[in-house]
Design goal:
Number of strands: 10
Distance between the termini: 62 Å
Oligomer: single chain
Strand content: 5-15%
Number of helices: 23
Largest sheet: 5 strands, antiparallel
Helix content: 55-70%
Structural class: alpha+beta
């Protein structure tokens, strides 16, 4: 039996509560696998529904909701991962919601007053004590500054951090158990998934982080008045309080209000797509949850973004891979899809014949125009799961964002084709990455790398000579033919001579060439390096 309770002794009360809830909802496989069956249970009311009448996914979803914000966030992540779970599970987990009953003002008021340094009725010209939104992490109030701006005041729920930190410790331990007890699950990197979950939740527990995220994304669109981000009022912000402008907008799925406002829904869909792809493909940082409540249609056909608790980040390499994937999808290139997927999934060892057939079936099923991006990406991740491949977490976050954004755009325009709308941004991204300046930067990086490697050669050679003088280098040679040994020594001597010449060039001449400009150094350095390596290869083959 797994002795989880002993490993997690510091959080034994929370662990017992988790076990009680899971057992109460009949999530038996998880309970047994994690060794929770024998923990002391906490007296608790039975679920209001007869769990025996519920399917296993339904029981898990209801248990997660009862377990609180940490598990709800985790369940929402799993709901967006068809590369990890089959549709029967993802569809049920997609029903998870984080809307909960608000904390009474009597509990949250003293905390807010302590953080503001004065009662909110004094800090603000107006403050509505009734929250306009209440979620598992925070709740939101309307207010007005003395200077006249309408603002929202976001407040963390009291005593939340202690529970979440305990949950994260226990879930990290559970991930280690999963990798040990279920070796077939190791390819899904459960510990890495927990690391990303912890990173996201810790970010949400610090509202200053959300404020910084807002300003980071707003800076991308500086100078554009059609993409709107709320202004942060830093003088009232802290870890548990966020004060920002109230964005007057309409959710994209509110058909009645959109019609009354007379907005151009097709134009808004295009602008929303441009904004999201500008963030993701060009800047490498994007809003990770662009659902209808976080992207608002504004007057004059503007798009407003709110709620920046979690943002996604993509490295330059990932962005390049994404462009290749989009190109492969548009060209119906099954081999290109395979190459990208294998590159992403790293150490996996799939059945190549099965993967090739899956890739071909995928491109054939999505050959019609216009393409439904949400369906394309969902099927792509399903193809990965069916071939025992798991997507990298950063790309899974992006895909979730793209699928969500695609759904929002289809609310605005049912015939919306995100692939076609993405054309200008994709071309701009490719121009940036593969322009002369972009290639020059890559060449400069290569030159610096070559210089760094070459600069270490004299030290290594000097160290080898010192060791030889000290008699601390032992060489064992098994002589089976003196003539072969002689030729081998000659070839080795030639290789050393070439290496010393290349090293001398890199350490003596190259620093001077740098003064002439990096491109000159890169060109000459590459020529010398290629000639030297080529010579060594020819010597190696000349037996």
């Amino acid at each position: 039996m797994l002795k989880t309770a002993f490993v997690a002794a510091r959080d034994r009360q929370r662990l017992s509560e988790i076990a009680t809830i899971l057992i109460g909802f009949g999530v038996n496989r998880v309970v047994d696998r994690l060794g929770l069956r024998y923990l002391p249970l906490i007296p608790r009311r039975k679920p209001k529904v007869d769990v025996t009448r519920l399917s296993e996914p339904e029981r898990l979803r209801r248990a997660i909701e009862a377990l609180g914000p940490t598990f709800i966030k985790f369940g929402q992540v799993l709901a967006s991962r068809p590369d990890l779970l089959s549709p029967i599970w993802t569809e049920e987990l997609a029903k998870l919601h984080s809307q909960v009953s608000p904390v009474p003002w009597e509990q949250i008021g003293p905390q807010l007053e302590a953080d503001l340094g004065a009662p909110p009725q004094e800090v603000f010209a107006e403050f509505n004590l009734e929250p306009i939104a209440s979620a598992s992490i925070a709740q939101v109030y309307r207010a007005r500054l003395h200077t006249g701006e309408d603002v929202i005041v976001k407040v963390l729920r009291p005593n939340l951090r202690k529970i979440i930190e305990a949950d994260l410790r226990l879930m990290a331990h559970g991930a280690r158990i999963v990798e040990t007890e279920w070796p077939d699950m190791a390819r899904y990197q459960p510990r890495e998934q927990m690391r990303h979950l912890a990173e996201g939740l810790n970010g949400e527990l610090d509202l200053l982080n959300e404020a910084r995220n807002c300003e980071l994304l707003a800076a991308i669109f500086e100078g554009r008045d059609d993409i709107v981000f709320p202004k942060i009022h830093w003088e009232w912000c802290s870890e548990r309080v966020l004060v920002q402008d109230f964005i007057h907008g309409i959710p994209p799925n509110d058909e009645v209000r959109l019609k009354e406002a007379g907005v151009d829904k097709k134009l808004l869909a295009q602008k929303g797509t441009d904004a999201f792809l500008q963030m993701a493909l060009i800047e490498g940082v994007f809003h990770a949850d662009p659902h209808p409540g976080n992207m608002l249609a504004m007057s004059d056909n503007r798009i407003g973004f709110i709620d920046f608790g979690i943002i996604g980040r993509l490295s330059q390499r990932r962005r390049s891979q994404l462009l290749i994937l989009i190109g492969a999808m548009l060209k119906q290139d099954a081999d290109g899809l395979m190459a990208v997927l294998l590159d992403w999934t790293g150490t996996s060892n799939p059945d190549m014949t099965k993967l090739q057939m899956s890739a071909q079936a995928f491109v054939e099923s999505h050959s019609s125009i216009p393409l439904n991006l949400g369906l394309v990406l969902t099927d792509f991740m399903t193809m990965a799961r069916e071939n025992d491949l798991a997507m990298p977490t950063d790309l899974a976050i992006l895909f979730k964002g793209l699928v969500t954004a695609d759904g929002v755009m289809r609310h605005l325009d049912p015939n919306f084709d995100l692939f076609a709308a993405a054309g200008p941004t994709v071309r701009a991204s490719m121009k940036t990455q593969f322009s002369l300046d972009g290639l020059k930067q890559k060449a400069e990086a290569l030159g610096v790398g070559l210089y760094g490697a070459a600069s270490e050669l004299p030290t290594l050679i000097h160290l080898m000579l010192v060791r030889l003088k000290q008699g601390k280098v032992t060489v064992e040679i098994e002589v089976k033919g003196l003539d072969k040994v002689t030729r081998g020594i000659e070839r080795a001597a030639a290789r050393v001579a070439v290496a010393l010449v290349v090293a001398a060039f890199a350490t003596q001449l190259a620093p001077r060439l740098i003064d002439l400009g990096t491109p000159v150094f890169v060109t000459i350095g590459l020529i010398v390096f290629v000639l030297g390596v080529g010579w060594l290869v020819l010597l190696g083959r000349n037996k």
